[in-house]
Every structure is written in C-alpha cells, then in structure tokens.
Automatic annotation (TrEMBL):
Pfam families: HATPase_c_2 (PF13581)
InterPro entries in the cross-refs: Anti-sigma-factor_SerPK, HATPase_C_sf, HATPase_dom
CDD domains: HATPase_RsbW-like (cd16936)
Source species: Phaeovulum veldkampii DSM 11550
Keywords on record: ATP-binding, Kinase, Nucleotide-binding, Serine/threonine-protein kinase, Transferase
Methyltransferase listed as a keyword: no
Segments for region (Disordered): 1-20
Protein name, entry field: ATP-binding protein
Top-level taxon of the source organism: Bacteria
Domain Histidine kinase/HSP90-like ATPase: 34-154
A molecular-function term among this protein's GO annotations: ATP binding
Length: 161
C-alpha cells in the first residue's frame, strides 16, 4: 500500500549500548490491512529476542491500540497515519503509538475494570474489553495530546534472561 514504510534504526552510537538494545520504527496508513502488516513487522523485528508469550502479548496490545485508532480516532475521516516505535531495553519493550485523529477519551485510561459479563450472551457489551486488556497487560501507560497528535506510551515487561 502506498505510504507504508518500515524503518529499522540501529541504537544511537553513544558508546557501548546495552546487549540487545534495538529500535523499531514504522509509519503507515491507518487501515486494518496495514495494521496487520505493522504487527507482523514488529513481531519479526524482535523474533528470537522475546518469548512466544511476550510476542503474543505485544501483538495483542498493539492490535487493540492500533485497531482502535483506525476505528475510533480516524473513524469516518478514513484517512490518517499511525507511527509505531518500539525500543527494546532491559526493563521491557517501550512502545509509543502516535496518530493525528480525535483525542483519546479519558475513560480509556481509568483503572482496568472488566465490563459486566454476568448477563445473557445477546446482552454482552460491545466495548470495553480491549482497553481492559491494554491497561491490564501494560505498565507505565501514559497518554498525552500535543499539537494535534495523540501520543500513547506504555511498556511491556520482558522475562529476565
């Protein structure tokens, strides 16, 4: 798809870098197909460096975040870009997702609460599960709106070793 690009940048050269420090940067059009491609590219970047469970958590969280951007932040406008950057460091994978869509509703950053599921299947709520997972699986979740950009940052912990 036009406008999709993958950039892989080495760690900045400021002397010796910690073992395994890597940076992933990907800017792409906000569309379900390009979100899938971004997920594959992010997983491929860290393949062999994180466990299968950590890779699954990374994909799940990023899919929820980026699909929410496509569906809700850009929504009817239908056009826009998403920038995803991931830094692998000792404390985990530090992720930053940036877009120029509508601001994130404050309720998304409230403490994680699973929506009420004590009801018949037909009455299950449609929303709320994705943000529950995002808040539950990440650390240091932070959001800021700056100069027309949404900046969502979080960290996914990695197992030692």
């Amino acid at each position: 798809m036009r406008g999709e690009a993958v950039q892989r940048l080495p760690a900045p050269d400021h002397g010796p870098s910690p073992e395994g420090t890597q940076i992933f940067l990907h800017r792409f059009q906000a569309h379900p197909l390009t979100v899938r491609r971004a997920l594959k590219a992010a997983s491929a970047r860290f393949r062999g460096q994180i466990s299968a469970q950590e890779a699954g958590t990374l994909e799940l969280v990023l899919a929820e975040v980026m699909n929410n951007i496509v569906e809700h932040s850009y929504g009817r406008a239908g056009r826009g870009c998403i920038t995803l950057s991931i830094l692998r460091e000792v404390r985990g994978l530090s992720c930053l997702v940036c877009d120029e869509g509508t601001p994130l509703p404050p309720v998304c950053l409230e403490p994680p609460r699973l929506p009420n599921i004590d009801c018949v299947l037909a009455d299950l709520p449609e929303g709320g599960f994705g943000w529950y997972l995002i808040r539950d699986l990440t650390l240091d979740l932070a959001y800021r709106r700056e100069e027309g950009h949404n900046l969502l940052a979080f960290r996914l912990p990695l197992q030692a070793g």
